[in-house]
Write a sequence for this structure.
């Protein structure tokens, strides 16, 4: 089947990310079947989709898009048996992923591409128990998948190149922005970058060098404002003035060796965990998760529109 002909998508695991994928595919006009073993999964999923729908409606729904195109299946096998594409979003646990991907592989029609939302495992280590591993890929999304365009697509050692190409094309058709990687890299691209920031943030909180509030403000009031348009490389190209990146590297290159960064992640002690949790509660200032999600969605849409406008005019 050609990626553009897909009409039926199955989402396995329907938490934060699986639910976000469901909302995305519904908004793009697909028929979606979801399965999640938790007893409260359907209610949680429908709440998540309902909460996302206003933002999706504002962005523009595809013809025929409706929350009524969602079916919640009783079993994994029922969810995937008629699927033309499967997205797995179960917990980040290698044993669960291995077992689940093997079950999905056994129950999904031959030739249908199966993609995992994993944020860190390589497909090589997850596809070990699959009978037809050639059609399994990683399709790593960003939260919330119904708003953030990027998906990082990469296969494992036993994935065939056609499956990677097919998945990349399908995600593009489904309205995502795709980076296809030709080799497995721990953390893919974006998480490798994000984890470097996250590791340093935890070190600073653990050592009392900065608070949660200061760390967040250092990004939202600082570099974060430049990144939506330029990314870290072009941002630093401008840091070199008229000399661009060449001057920037000649000028600041030697300071790369300064002890700004710490190579090892800190120990996640109870104390550090509590400090992070309390810091985030303080920063949330009484706003519930649902309120923060709605605020984030409005802000992401506003930023996306502003960037579109700048690109259109330049
Ligand atoms: N939360 C995030 O920001 C992101 C997460 N991811 C990845 O997405 C995947 C899911 O993560 P979240 O949605 O955050 O987790 P979550 O905890 O919100 O959702 C996981 C869901 O999987 C269900 N589940 C438990 N056992 C299962 C099984 N055996 N089969 C199918 N479903 C099962 C749970 O009931 C739950 O609804 C993970 O691989 C994670 O690394 C990827 C990008 C971002
Ligand atoms: C927290 N996380 C590592 C699971 C985040 C991601 O994988 C991507 C994102 O949404 O930032």
């Amino acid at each position: 089947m050609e990626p553009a002909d897909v009409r039926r998508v199955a989402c396995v695991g329907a938490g934060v990310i699986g639910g976000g994928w469901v909302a995305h595919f519904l908004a793009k006009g697909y028929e979606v079947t979801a399965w999640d073993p938790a007893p409260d999964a359907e209610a949680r999923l429908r709440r998540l989709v309902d909460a996302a729908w206003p933002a999706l409606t504002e962005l523009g729904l595809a013809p025929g898009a409706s929350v009524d195109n969602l079916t919640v299946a009783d079993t994994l096998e029922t969810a995937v048996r008629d699927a033309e594409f499967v997205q797995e979003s179960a917990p980040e646990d290698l044993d669960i992923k291995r077992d689940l991907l093997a079950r999905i592989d056994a129950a999904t029609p031959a030739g249908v591409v199966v993609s995992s939302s994993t944020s860190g495992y390589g497909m090589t280590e997850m596809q070990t128990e699959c009978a037809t591993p050639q059609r399994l890929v990683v399709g790593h999304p960003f939260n919330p998948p119904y708003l953030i365009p990027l998906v990082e697509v990469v296969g494992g050692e036993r994935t065939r190149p056609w499956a990677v190409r097919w998945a990349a094309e399908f995600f593009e058709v489904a309205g995502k922005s795709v980076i296809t990687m030709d080799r497995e890299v721990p953390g893919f691209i974006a998480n490798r970058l994000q984890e470097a920031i996250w590791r340093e943030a935890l070190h600073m909180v653990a050592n009392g060098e900065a608070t949660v509030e200061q760390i967040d403000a250092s990004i939202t009031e600082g570099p974060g404002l430049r990144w939506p348009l330029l990314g870290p490389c072009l941002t630093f190209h401008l840091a070199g003035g008229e000399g661009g990146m060449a001057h920037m590297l000649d000028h600041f290159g030697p300071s790369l060796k300064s002890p700004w960064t710490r190579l090892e992640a800190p120990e996640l002690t109870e104390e550090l965990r509590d400090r992070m949790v309390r810091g985030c509660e303080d920063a949330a200032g009484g706003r519930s998760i649902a309120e923060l999600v709605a605020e984030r969605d409005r802000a992401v849409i506003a930023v996306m529109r502003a960037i579109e406008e700048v690109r259109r005019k330049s």
Notes: The chain is about 50% helix and 10% strand.
